[in-house]
Design goal:
By secondary structure, this protein is of the alpha/beta class. Helix content is 24%, strand content 27%. It has 2 domains: 126 residues, Golgi alpha-mannosidase II (Immunoglobulin-like, Sandwich); 363 residues, Glycosidases (TIM Barrel). A hairpin with a 5-residue loop joins strand 12 and strand 13. The longest helix is centred in the middle third of the chain and has 22 residues.
Length: 502
């Protein structure tokens, strides 16, 4: 058995973690909204039509922020359609997903759902088919108190107090030819700059996210970021990153090493941000919002056969398996390792559409395999991120070389005097014997060990068998004179929680 030596020292602080790194995303796409979070007549639905069984599963995740209403959908979105009396809202053809949007659920209703799940709204504006005027009007509608046309319009709709939306996305994936209103980097950069100015003139307290590349493999990657930031650097607060992971080649060794791509993507975009910072001779730091990330490939072929113009068809309903959960656990580790620059992130999406939560129409809601690493990292990964130094075995695979068998990060919660360590063994061949130095934190006991291991890579949960793949409690007698000593099996994800001295 191969051995690894790890060291976790309180001096190796990465950053205080912004809790919004555990955000998520709901788009008007598939069954995310209709027959997802919203199903009037369901046994658990409240008077607004929101499924309370779904609400409870979302609340357990402690999702701090939810991006809405898209996604590709937002590039054709008329926000005025989503407010006011429902019987006066028009049905529209959505060219992003070739469906019919009834607008039965809009900004008014979604903000009520956001309150139910104890979260905050990250609202995207349409910079595809619309522009700065519609965007600044939406800020006025949402955030201005009263005495202006759009704030008084909101009040006439029954919302006396402002929505108080603090985080706004300036469009979505504008580098993509699939996007309504696709633009060059210069075209988008100029529009985003002027839109940002006007939005902040209405409400100077808001934070703005400019569109970065929709994936690292885009042919315009890097040039896009540099050009957009050259235009918008002083006006925006974050640059977005999007990426999805696939094991369509059935190469599990490369798939589980996917965190290396996330690390590289983040570091590359960070370098571009810092280049523009130097070029502009400014002291302002640009932070990152990784506001779309997940596994997505299981349904891509079948989704091409969906009939056009129907409402809420079952689209992007990937059923996740054990190896998907391992990768998601690893990607969360990568986000925490880069929390000095990544301040927000959104697992895309939250319900039914490439999601940790699935629903049956009229039936139950259940948790996919990826729900579990998301849950444990969100709930226990809050505080101060600590770098894990390691001397660890490495392996090569088809997509990557020099992959450390283990990937890990630690989080110190000073309020609770707890140290949480998240570890992924991404090797498909080697168990690893670990000796981890925790003495800097004066550990007293391992109070919990959760492990996800031992399943067939393709094993999955379903409505019929929702607990086919679940984490279990592991051994906690691991401390030896300030060291954690354990064996981490191949292809496994772990969370260790230690009580430490104040």
């Amino acid at each position: 058995m191969k051995k690894a030596v790890l060291s976790i020292d309180k001096l190796n602080k990465i950053s205080e973690i912004d809790e919004r790194i555990y955000g998520s995303f709901i788009e008007h796409l598939g069954r995310a909204v209709y027959n997802g979070i919203y199903e009037p007549g369901h046994p658990s639905a409240d008077k607004l039509g929101f499924r309370q069984d779904v609400v409870e599963l979302v609340k357990k995740l402690e999702v701090p922020i939810v991006r809405y209403p898209g996604g590709n959908f937002v590039s054709g979105f008329r926000w005025e359609d989503s407010v006011g009396p429902r019987d006066q809202r028009p049905a529209r053809l959505d060219l992003a997903w070739f469906t019919t949007e009834t607008n039965a659920v809009g900004l008014q209703e979604f903000s009520q759902w956001i309150s139910q799940v104890d979260s905050q709204l990250m609202l995207a504006v349409n910079l595809g088919t619309r522009g700065a005027d519609a965007a600044r009007n939406l800020v006025e509608y949402c955030n201005h108190t009263k005495g202006s046309y759009y704030s008084d319009l909101r009040r006439s709709h029954g919302k006396e107090e402002p929505y108080g939306v603090k985080v706004w996305c300036l469009g979505n994936e504008m580098d993509g030819p699939w996007q309504m209103g696709h633009k060059t980097a210069t075209e988008y950069g100029r529009l985003a700059c002027e839109t940002a100015k006007m939005m902040k003139w209405v409400d100077p307290t808001i934070e703005l996210v400019a569109c970065g590349s929709s994936k690292m493999a885009m042919p315009t990657f890097a040039d896009w970021e540099a050009t957009v930031l050259d235009e918008t650097y002083e006006q925006v607060d974050y640059l977005s990153l999007h990426n999805y992971w696939s094991n369509i080649a059935d190469d599990t060794a490369s798939f589980l090493a996917g965190g290396m791509l996330m690390d590289d993507f983040i570091k590359s975009v960070t370098a571009i941000c810092d280049y523009i910072k130097a070029k502009k001779r400014t002291k302002k730091e640009m932070y990152l919002s990784f506001d779309e990330w997940n596994v997505w490939y299981h349904t891509k072929e079948s989704d091409t056969k969906i009939e056009h113009w129907i409402q809420a068809p079952p689209r992007l309903e990937d059923i996740y398996n054990f190896e998907d959960a391992l990768l998601v656990g690893g990607l969360l580790i990568s986000l925490l390792k880069n929390s000095d620059r990544v301040k927000m992130a959104c697992l895309a999406q939250l319900v039914n559409v490439i999601a940790p939560i699935m629903t049956e129409v009229g039936g139950k809601a259940w948790m996919q395999t990826i729900y579990y690493p998301y849950y444990y990292t969100s709930v226990y990964g809050r505080g101060e991120a600590i770098r894990v130094i390691m001397d660890c075995p490495k392996y090569d695979c088809q997509e990557y070389t020099d992959v450390t068998a283990l990937d890990a990060v630690a989080v110190k919660n000073s309020q609770e005097n707890m140290l949480t360590v998240f570890v992924l063994n991404r090797s498909v061949e080697e168990d690893v014997s670990v000796r981890c130095d925790l003495r800097s934190f004066l550990p007293k006991a391992c109070v919990e060990h959760v492990k996800l291991e031992g399943y067939d890579y393709k094993a999955f949960n379903s409505a019929a068998n929702p607990e086919a793949v679940v984490p279990v409690q592991g051994e906690t007698d691991l401390l030896r004179e300030g060291y954690m000593e354990t064996v981490i099996p191949k292809s496994s994800w772990h969370m260790y929680r230690f009580s430490v001295e104040d």
